From TrEMBL:
This is Superoxide dismutase. It is an enzyme of class 1 (oxidoreductase). Destroys radicals which are normally produced within the cells and which are toxic to biological systems. Pfam families: Sod_Fe_C (PF02777), Sod_Fe_N (PF00081).
Amino acid sequence: MSSTLLRSTPALRAALRARAAPVASLAGASFVRGKATLPDLQYDYGALEPYISGQIMELHHSKHHQTYVNGLNTALETVAEAESNGDYTKAASQAPLINFHGGGHLNHSLFWENLAPASQNGGGEPDGALAKAITKDFGSFDTLRKQTNAALAGIQGSGWAWIVKDKTSGTLSLVTRANQDPITGNLEPLLGIDAWEHAYYLQYQNRKAEYFDAIWNVVNWKAVASRFEK
């Protein structure tokens, strides 16, 4: 999956100064010539079955993620146009949309990288330095999995559960975020699990706990370890 760092445009910087509020960091999401783009998957839509159906994967990637891409591009274009007209109030008004759609683009870009079929080393348990860190900070991998599933079940409405690393101490922890709010600041996102209904409902309906259990069978621990070791 191609990945580049979005350099803040003057328009976006103006919006942020006017808004004086944090907005999503978009490092890790895919962009081409300054526009957000839908990243390619490294596996077929049906490759994660039976744990995640091909129908869900196709809709989730090609429709839902594409909506975040489109929304982010529209918001950034609105900021640029508003700045060119000297309308900084309008530019600042786009900050919530940039956070939502930008967060959706970033979160999903990481999510696809977090998944892999068994043929590409998906599932199982982490090893090496990541496994040692999990044991140190959570007690065991099984405890981490149970705590993550409990956090996912506790999300009211839509959101994500993330295993994150403190960039200063290297300590691992578990956090949740509402809607599409991204992981920012001193936390490095390692593994995110999508608790929005569109991620599971066509297959699991109201049995979301089954989805939370199933997704561990397709976690790409190699990708998670790569982020951990940065």
